[in-house]
């Protein structure tokens, strides 16, 4: 989701819920206090707002927020049925009403009468249900139009796999796109051969398929009793790539036991994730990206204009260099940079391969003959990277994250664990930039990216941004 980032949407949704409950409280007050024998509406309006009352209400808001979190309001619910969603909404509003009752009893709030609580519950339940319905319809339309999609591979061609595939295809509002099935031909696959589905690769070819395609999830429907080792190896492979694994929770065929899941569909499924966890920190990170990139583009506009003029008058060719890079979950995008080399420099790379000074699949020459005179200065000062703020604003990149690699470098990867760096949005700066850049070997570079993914926090991002400025001024490891 580029224009409407999911994390920003979650933050707005949390604010909306709290505003809705506050409005429900106010409206319930207006409707129930008029003509009541307790506190009249006029007396209520004439009351002074006390600090203690504000603190009590703030505590109630915090409790409501915790209730909504526990009810799973801010988890991915694209596979949840509308009936289950409404049940969760009414459960949350009921718990919020009970919470309000406890607060009223604890602090002797006279206006919170039984009638008030009934009115509050009705208003809040209706508001939450209508709000979630509108949001569900809005997101469903976005997904039908091809936005906010998730690409899924289905492992197995048995009955359960064939039951799962049609459900995601007949409900495009879920935003799932079936890439195909993974399996090896077997005697019992007659039912699959009679269907219109296709096998994109066998189990042995899955690693190569993941390396070269956009895959967000792998749904495992192999019979675990017979193919446990295969399923385990594939789950480990997905972990290396940072891809979500989804598998049927009804492993043992139990009839009375219940399964608790983070996301539910029919039948319930369990999802695992490696890498950064979703939540308000990710929402703040995206908000910082948008605000920071927009502010920097405005402040640096004179510098960007001067650099563009210098590039144009000192060498032939375009001002900007656009190159296809590998981003989140191997999505391709074009990175924006100031051109620092002669035109068609990429065509000259083949003649310079033997001069490569870095280990691994990446290519770098300290005194690259393709670099223009102005380009050498731009690279040393990292000014050539500034147009990437446009990529950050669009959502292709973040201010902080593993560097996006060219397709040529990515195709040279020989170990799958290195590909887990693609489970997060690439960035302009990261640990590699602030610890030496080109003076660090490829293997150590990849380990630093894994360290960032595993230890990520907003505080880590702020520290990296703070360390980037002196690193740029010193030109540490710059080519």
What do these coordinates show?
By secondary structure, the protein is of the alpha/beta class. The chain folds into three domains: 6-144, no CATH class; 150-253 and 260-272, Rossmann fold; 280-474, no CATH class. It has 17 helices and eleven strands. It has helices spanning 6-33, 41-46, 51-70, 82-107, 114-144, 159-169, 190-193, 206-212, 224-241, 280-299, 301-314, 373-380, 388-394, 407-410, 431-434, 442-455, 458-474; strands spanning 150-155, 176-182, 199-201, 217-220, 244-248, 269-272, 320-326, 332-338, 398-400, 405-406, 427-429. The chain has a six-stranded mixed beta sheet, with helices on both faces. The protein has a three-stranded antiparallel beta sheet with strand order 8-7-10. Helix 9 (224-241) links the parallel strand 4 (217-220) and strand 5. Helix 1 (6-33) packs across helix 10 (280-299). The chain is globular. The two termini are 35 Å apart.
Mean pLDDT: 81
Shape: globular
| Number of E strands | 11
Rg over CA atoms, rounded to whole Å, is 28 Å
Largest sheet: 6 strands, mixed
The N- to C-terminal Cα distance equals 35 Å
Portion in helices: 40-55%
- Unreliable stretches, pLDDT < 50, 5 or more residues? 255-260
Spatially, the strands of the biggest sheet line up as: 3-2-1-4-5-6
Beta percentage is: 5-15%
State the helix count: 17
Order of helices and strands: HHHHHEHEHEHEHEEHHEEHHEEHEHHH
Kindly name the structural category: alpha/beta
The tally of domains stands at 3
